[in-house]
Amino acid sequence: MSTLELRGLTKRFGEIEALNAIDLTVDQGDFCVLLGPSGCGKSTALRCIAGLETITDGDVIINGDRVNEKTPKERGIAMVFQTYALYPHMTVRENLAFPLKMSKMPKDEMEKRVRDAASLLRIEPMLERRPRELSGGQRQRVAIGRAIVREPTLFLFDEPLSNLDAKLRNDMRLEIAALHRRLEATVIYVTHDQVEAMTLGKTIVVMNDGRIEQVGTPDEVYQRPATPFVAGFVGMPAMNFITGEIRNDAFEGNGFEIPVSVDHEGETLLGVRPEDINLGGDHGEGEVEIIENLGADRYAYLKETDTRKRWAVRLNADESVDVGQAVNLSFNVERLHLYADNRRLDVTSSS
Amino acid sequence: MNSERKAAYALVAPAVFIVAVFVLSPIVQAFINSLYRDTPFSPKTFIGLDNYRTLFSDSVATGTIEFTLIFVIVSTALEILIGLGLALVIHEHFKGRGLVRAAVLIPWAIPTVVAGVMWKYMLNDQYGFVNLVFYGSNVANYVAWLASEWSARMAIIGADVWKTSSFAALLILAGLQSIPEDLYEAARIDGANAVKRFFRITLPLLKPAILLALLFRMMDAFRVFALVYVMTQGAPGGSTNVLQYYGYQKMFPEQQFGYGSAVSVLVFVMIAIVATILIRTVRTRIYES
Ligand SMILES: Nc1ncnc2c1ncn2[C@@H]1O[C@H](COP(=O)(O)OP(=O)(O)OP(=O)(O)O)[C@@H](O)[C@H]1O
Ligand SMILES: [Mg+2]
Can you tell me which atom of ligand 1 is nearest the CA of A14? Predict the structure, then answer.
């Protein structure tokens, strides 16, 4: 059963169209990540779902009820803010109890829930402290605690980890994943960090410019990006692109020809990931500008001498190059991505 | 004494010197004067605390103390309440907010003497605007507002509230603007309606700003002078007299320098007590947040 459904959700701020007819269905228990560049409308979408923003057009449906006109409270959602938004004048205990107090819960039930949330998030020793006496990670936990005490149908997270340092972000990410498994809750999680999206998401919704580009599992989004935008946005370093043409079952561009079998003729964009490029061959050439050693992986960045086109290439363990060296490239032709008219072309077979 | 300390003392020395010469020494001098009978017609004689005894037993003096306290309490209470209301209004986003903000600040920008004269005219028993509003052309019913005890007291307090509520509003507005918007959003999600958001989020977080406004307004209210001087000169029958004006009367028109000094010292002590209490609270509040 779907917990959340968006139908043609549109939001305009005056002239600015922040969301353009979004359609989305999120199933019970899903961990749905909204991923996209800054300003693409992720937060706006979340705020429309939460009821913090009135919507211009379309419907928000939670558990089968159209909730467009309902207050945030009536929607049965909980939200964790990027800034945590803890009440500074209340202790941790009071912060956790606040939503329960507002719903006039009996005292012993309230205390039990606060205790349970505190032990789940390991913040029991801090219950009497105020938010300013906590570290960033602890504040984050309290913010999550305040969301879970209400046992909502839907959790909304808006970039909850972006104010933490890299190490803490990693730890909290694992914790959020564990929490999700444990609570079997439905989560909508906004981020512009693709590592977070890939590791946390069961479903990833890639957004751009107020529209949805693709909905899929992390694998689908990475292996079969639906649009050139998704192909370029997901993956670090980004995918390499070549513009060319398909004619007579072959892609022509950049001075080479690769046979492809697709239902399309004419202008085409070819994408190839850095890990699908090998040294040697005749699909490209260039001079090594920079080598990035990330420990587990090494990447070489190349520049073609005449076209000044740049390439990102992942080096295999046995490959070694030097800065300034000229190298030739070949593609793993099984794993090419082809796009025409902003759509992915299905490769039926290739040789 | 290490060099950092020496430098620190050197830096505060000029300020300490100025405070000592221009603030501390007049206070000490006033206190010493207050222990003498010092009038132009008799030799200056030491009389101990006699001036203070008179101050607390003479019925004119006690009436003055009474109205001073009434004025301080009622006017600051009203100013904080109205200031809070004004601040909440001009904090909201609406068309013409800039105009409203400016309008709210106008009374504060008017010099007190001018405001006093203006209110005196408005309350005039023959051509006052207030009478026109209440009784129209029915001139026979016109009231001499400043001639009876309670309406004169209300007039003084009203004029002060009219003039300085916007100052309280300004301080409280600064406090309002420092409350992050997402706290209100979190509270909405947590199920708090507008009333609960006000009492559980806004008001507690405004406490430092309100205490600060209270401090400034109370200290100022103890020193009220110009409004009384212009509007009533303490009339009728001393019912609107305040300590600062009373002290001035004794000191200058009546040339009772010793007794006048005792009045000044009393005002100083009252302000000092209130200020110490409030500053303590403000400081702990500010450190807390
Ligand atoms: N209150 C507002 N008034 C006017 N425009 C707004 C408002 N809120 C958002 N926008 C605009 O809507 C668009 C989407 O904003 P949104 O905050 O949803 O982006 P985002 O995807 O969350 O970006 P980020 O990753 O930077 O948080 C932006 O162009 C933004 O300028
Ligand atoms: Mg955002």
Answer: 4
The whole domain housing B92 covers 59-288
pLDDT tens digits, residue range B136-185?
888 888 888 999 999 999 999 999 999 999 999 999 999 999 999 999 99
| Cβ <8 Å between A88 and B201 | no
Around ion ligand 2, which residues have CB less than 5 A away? A 43
Cβ A43 under 6 angstroms from ligand 1: yes
Contact flag A99-B191 (C-beta cutoff 8 Å): yes
Residue B173 inside a domain? The answer is yes
pLDDT in tens, A93-111: 999 999 999 999 999 999 9
CATH of the domain at B148: 1.10.3720.10
Residue B24 lies in a domain: no
Q: Which atom of ligand 1 is nearest to the CA of A210?
A: 14
The whole-number pLDDT of residue A351 equals: 45
Q: Ligand 1: does its nearest atom lie under 6 Å from the Cβ of A39? A: yes
Tell me how many domains chain B contains. Answer: 1
Q: CA of A74: which chain B residue's CA is closest?
A: B191
Residue A213 is predicted with a pLDDT of 96
Q: Looking at chain A, which runs of residues are DSSP E strands?
A: 2-13, 16-27, 31-35, 57-62, 65-66, 77-80, 154-158, 186-191, 203-208, 211-216, 240-247, 250-253, 256-259, 266-272, 277-293, 298-303, 310-315, 326-331, 337-340, 343-344
* ipTM reported for the complex, 2 dp: 0.87
Tell me if B5 is assigned to some domain: no
Q: Which residues 91-110 in chain A show a CB within 8 A of chain B?
A: 98-99, 102-103
Residue B8 lies in a domain: no
